[in-house]
Please model this.
Amino acid sequence: MKNWMGTGSAALSFVLWGMLPLYYQFMPAVNMWELLSHRVLWSAVLLGLLFLLIGYRVPWARLRSEPRQLGLILLAGPVMSISWCMFTWCLTTGQVLATSLAFFMTPLFNIVFAVLFLKEKLTPQKHLAVALALAGLAYMLFSYGQLPWFSLIMGANFALYGLLKKKVHYDAGVSLYLEALVQLPVALLIIGALAVSGASQFVAGDWTERLLLMGSAPATLLPVGLFCYGMMRTRMSTVGLLQYIEPSLAFLLAIFWFGETPDPVKSVGFAFVWAGLLVSLLPLHKLRRGAGNPAQGLPR
Model:
């Protein structure tokens, strides 16, 4: 049950991430740094209020006694912000397909990190799934004729965030709260500078625009929280394969909702990816056990 809860949480987080462009389409024309700063500010406020309401106390004494854990949590915040900067830039400039390509590569980094740093062993199913995903990626790289460095950096960075969260033993709420707190001074500095210079959309806009900026916190906290919960309870290689849900949804939204031009190269690439994902999720291990016991297949 615990493993299925983790797997389900991770899968749901990628569904929500894949649907985020639907929220960002209503966002006003706002400075990217202001948007990111408000996400950090309201994330800290929201989590702080939640802890206050449920009477939860952050275990500061325990954190001070575990400097390595505290360091991992504090490092995860800036690492995640780099990913959000790149992700937000793509969404606010109307390049939804670019995000799909970037996160297409993240699962491969996740699986590589799982094998190299966590010593996870891949099952034959996952070997086949990875091979199919690599075939799709190789086809795209060969067709485009160049390495998409932006997508590679974005994918590797998000996979690094996943690796850091895998090594953190605190619950997702505490971890996300500390990540927001460590970035809060910079966020407040940016918000203040934009307000003083008269370039703040939060100050100049109406309440609808302000609520949209404030809402960027819960809109991103929920999938990140589910991802952190799932990462702590599921093999990183499994999370890596599930992550293909996100770029696939982004790809479909870009074409059928935002009207971007379909890319036949990505279409072939995604076909390989989804084939690999289906292979990894099919309960072939149960079929193998059933084959070894003929009586299991008899009617009762």
Summary: The first helix runs from residue 2 to 24. The CA atoms of residues 107 and 261 lie 25 Å apart. The chain is about 80% helix and 0% strand. Residues 4-285 form one domain.
